[in-house]
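quick q for whoever's on today - can somebody do inverse folding on this one?? i tried earlier but teh output was garbage lol. tokens:
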């Protein structure tokens, strides 16, 4: 091929890719979004603020929304969010739970959102201990504890390392888009996660094409707002925190302790989850005696955004002692 022809092909290819990207983003923006209110604005949640200071100096920031504990007809639900997320990831689900009479507790993981990091080396065991501290601080009783992705790992660590807290305060566990071991890769992580702190990655993500680069975090039916929200919490998380928790997730293996979890467990995963592959969710469900597995056709990793009605329904079923 002559040089001029090669340049022409490259220009046409780039133009076609740009056009396809613009059309895709337009389609994603126009898709019905379960995370918006009747006026087209993102769902919002208010609540009573609380803070928990851990034994290594981290300060966990959270809110308690909905009915007081004494009048919560559907019980207490505690929600733990994902890696490079914040409690905002759970808001679409939490709004639905509050509408159904739940008392809902949301908090930011250490080093994420409004919570500080503390002096401990980030680990899955540490965020499990943080979750135990949150349950005690809000005096949760007979609660459903749900975790998304890394938040689900915190829930597993709670169950494995703090069985007495679970026995005293927890009714049921709901594990969303998560795994117990063998997490191989993550979008934008690169080899060993080294690109997570790269300033160039952040600059690109903050640009117009940034949300599209996170397309693999969702399933068959993307919504632009979900990609923007995922991007915004990612870039708001310190590069050092991103990398430290990425390495902690890669190193964890909770499987040996899961067989003795003393409360009912539900595992839910998207069939098109490219971050936590469905086989990892199946392996997690298989490691917990009596666990129930729900696989959502066509859904990706960000189930609290993609399928908030379904996830809220599973949590309510767990709160009422029913089956998913």
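ok took a stab at it. sequence:
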């Amino acid at each position: 091929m002559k040089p001029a022809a090669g340049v022409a092909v490259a220009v046409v290819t780039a133009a076609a890719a740009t056009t396809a990207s613009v059309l895709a983003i337009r389609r994603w923006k126009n898709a019905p979004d379960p995370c918006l209110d009747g006026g087209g604005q993102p769902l919002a949640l208010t609540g009573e603020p609380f803070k928990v200071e851990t034994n290594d100096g981290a300060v966990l920031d959270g809110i308690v929304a909905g009915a007081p504990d004494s009048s919560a007809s559907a019980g207490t639900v505690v929600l733990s969010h994902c890696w490079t997320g914040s409690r905002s990831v759970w808001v679409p689900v939490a709004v639905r739970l509050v509408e159904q009479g739940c008392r809902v507790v949301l908090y930011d993981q250490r080093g994420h959102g409004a919570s500080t990091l503390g002096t401990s080396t980030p680990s899955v065991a540490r965020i499990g201990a943080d979750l135990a501290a949150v349950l005690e601080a809000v005096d949760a009783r007979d609660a459903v504890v749900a975790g998304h992705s890394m938040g689900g790992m915190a829930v597993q660590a709670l169950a494995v390392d703090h069985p007495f807290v679970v026995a005293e305060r927890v009714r049921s566990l709901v594990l969303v888009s998560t795994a117990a071991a063998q997490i191989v890769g993550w979008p934008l992580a690169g080899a060993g996660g080294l690109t997570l702190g790269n300033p160039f990655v952040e600059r690109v993500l903050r640009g117009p094409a940034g949300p599209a680069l996170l397309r693999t975090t969702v399933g068959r039916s993307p919504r632009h707002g979900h990609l923007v929200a995922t991007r915004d919490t990612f870039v708001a998380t310190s590069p050092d925190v991103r990398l430290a928790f990425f390495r902690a997730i890669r190193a964890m293996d909770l499987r040996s302790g899961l067989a003795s979890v003393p409360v009912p467990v539900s595992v839910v995963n998207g069939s098109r989850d490219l971050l936590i592959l469905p086989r990892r969710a199946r392996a997690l469900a298989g490691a917990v005696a009596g666990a129930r597995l729900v696989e959502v056709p066509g859904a990706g990793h960000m189930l609290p955004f993609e399928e908030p009605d379904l996830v809220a329904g599973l949590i309510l079923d767990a709160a009422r002692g029913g089956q998913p």
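fwiw The chain has twelve helices and eight strands. also The beta strands are 48-53, 59-66, 76-80, 103-107, 143-148, 170-176, 265-270, 292-296. so keep that in mind when u check it
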